[in-house]
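Homework help board

Subject: predicted structure for assignment chain

Our instructor gave us this sequence and asked us to write out the predicted structure in token form, then describe one feature. I got the tokens but I'm not sure how to describe them. Can anyone check?
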Amino acid sequence: MHTRSFNNRGPKKYLFQSHYKNAGSLRLGRRRLGGRPGERIDPAKFINKAIMAEGDEYFMPEHKFQDFKIDQRLIRAIANKGYKIPTPIQDQIISHIIERFDVVGIADTGTGKTAAFLLPLINKILQNSRQQILIVAPTRELAIQIDQEFKFFARGMRIFSVCCVGGASIGRQISELRYNYNLIIGTPGRLKDLIRRRMINLSKFNTVVL
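My token output:
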């Protein structure tokens, strides 16, 4: 995930990796013949404990969501989503995106990358409704997922997105692009097609997420 705001500040890069040895491995064995009838077998004896690789530690965030300088409506949306504390990538980059730094974030699937960039970008739009943001996703499924998460966080805030992906009606997408929107979320092929049709003007975007 690469978030770029068009300003003079340089990129910040964060790398989060967790490495475990033998995590979740399970060995099953049979009790020897001649063992005592009814003898209890402790399953824990046959399960390898996860061994944390050198350098891994239990993560304690430096921030609470309330610590970030974001709109209270977003704080309520975060609570409604069920988020309690920021994940590592959220903890590290949300404040930098709010401060309009360019950032590069690297983290595994399911670690909250989408919310890490959506929350500060929605906040940016709430502060200035003229902001326009382009989010480019590598697959149709990911673009739709990002759009759904955006709609959840931005519910009731009068912030609008257009999801531009293949396999869906381009006519409907063109129709939606004629109305006011703040975000375009799309895949490269469909975006290229809409740019060629002059329905998307790249010069209008203040922020790009790749």
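Reply (TA_rk): Your tokens look well-formed. For the description, you could write something like this. The two ends are 6 Å apart (CA to CA). That's the kind of observation they're looking for.
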